[in-house]
Design brief:
Helix content: over 70%
Distance between the termini: 24 Å
Pfam family, one: NMN_transporter
Largest sheet: none
Family: Belongs to the nicotinamide ribonucleoside (NR) uptake permease (TC 4.B.1) family.
Strand content: under 5%
Protein name: Nicotinamide mononucleotide transporter PnuC
Order of helices and strands: HHHHHHHHH
Membrane topology: Multi-pass membrane protein
Radius of gyration: 18 Å
Keywords: Cell membrane, Membrane, Transmembrane, Transmembrane helix, Transport
Number of strands: 0
Length: 241
């Protein structure tokens, strides 16, 4: 118990200047500038979407470092994004993030806190999954997708097919996140592409959602970096072991 509490304290205290590299500060800074710049350029007034976007990109830079604090921010993002999706009649996104992604992110947070790497580091121990478990994860994702398709169709979800595909990528991403596999970032990157399409369709009807599109474009860039950094973490931890 003491070890876990100490690790959680290290997680909270890790948000300091030297914790991030120059490349990571640059990536986060560009992401923030793009999101805020789009918001101001188009004179948008949806401050809730802006807040969610900023929380989201900040969560991703912590996730890229394997820091559990990113999961805490991710849960906050899920709650805000679920509400925003509800206002746009994207019930698939709302149900997915509030009913699936948020609870599984909480579970992932617990898993990350239980598996710290080393001493004095706010970093999770990189895990791995077998080929058999990988097949299981894909099959389970397909089952969840089929179930959600009929649920979303019953709710009259806008843009049903991309909304359903978002369920597939979201579920696979949070599953891999809980398993501490570097592949979780790839699954999230795939989900970002689906959401760029989904919210791009919404922009055609209401330009105020443009900041959400820019948000997921930057999410995509952050998730790609997350996969690269987790691959480095895995190699470094394996070498040290």
């Amino acid at each position: 118990m003491y070890r876990r509490m100490r690790f959680f304290t290290e997680v909270i205290m890790s948000a300091k200047l030297k914790y991030f590299t120059k490349a990571e500060w640059t990536l986060w800074g560009v992401s923030v500038l793009m999101i805020v710049g789009t918001f101001l350029l188009f004179q948008q007034s949806d401050y809730l979407s802006l807040t969610a976007s900023l929380i989201g990109v900040t969560a991703l830079i912590f996730n890229a470092k394997g820091n559990p604090f990113g999961q805490v921010l991710g849960i906050a993002f899920c709650l805000l994004y679920g509400y925003i999706s509800f206002t746009c009649s994207y019930y698939g996104e709302m149900i997915t993030y509030l009913g699936m992604t948020a609870p599984m992110s909480l579970y992932a947070l617990i898993c990350w806190l239980r598996h710290p790497y080393g001493a004095g580091r706010a970093e999770v121990k990189v895990g791995s999954i077998s080929r058999r478990e990988g097949v299981f994860a894909v099959v389970l994702s397909i089952i969840v997708t089929v179930v959600f398709y009929f649920i979303l169709r019953a709710f009259g979800t806008a843009n049903l097919l991309p909304s359903t595909l978002s369920v597939t990528t979201s579920f696979l991403a949070v599953y891999l996140t809980a398993r501490r596999s570097p592949a979780f970032a790839v699954a999230y990157a795939a989900n970002d592409l689906v959401l760029i399409l989904l919210w791009g369709l919404a922009v055609a009807e209401d330009p105020s959602y443009l900041s959400v599109v820019v948000c997921f474009v930057m999410f995509f860039a952050n998730d790609i970096y997350g996969f690269i950094n987790w691959s480095r973490m895995r190699q470094r931890q394996a070498t040290a072991a």
